[in-house]
C-alpha cells in the first residue's frame, strides 16, 4: 500500500457530521483548524 505524497489529489471526499468529534485527540486541533473546521477544546 502506498501513502499519499505532497501534491496528490484525494480520490474520495471525507464528510464529518456537525457536532462533537470525540475520536480526535486535542493534539490534532491545530490540523483540524487549518482545514477550516471551527474548533473548541473541552476538558
TrEMBL record:
Signal peptide: none annotated. This is Large ribosomal subunit protein uL10-like insertion domain-containing protein. Residues 4-43 form the Large ribosomal subunit protein uL10-like insertion domain. The lineage of its organism: Eukaryota, Metazoa, Chordata, Craniata, Vertebrata. It holds the Pfam family RL10P_insert. It comes from Xenopus tropicalis. InterPro entries: Ribosomal_uL10-like_insert, Ribosomal_uL10-like_insert_sf, Ribosome_Assembly_uL10.
Amino acid at each position: 500500500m502506498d501513502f499519499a505524497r505532497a501534491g496528490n489529489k484525494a480520490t474520495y471526499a471525507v464528510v464529518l457530521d456537525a457536532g462533537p468529534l470525540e475520536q480526535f485527540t486535542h493534539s490534532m486541533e491545530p490540523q483540524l483548524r487549518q482545514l477550516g473546521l471551527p474548533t473548541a477544546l473541552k476538558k
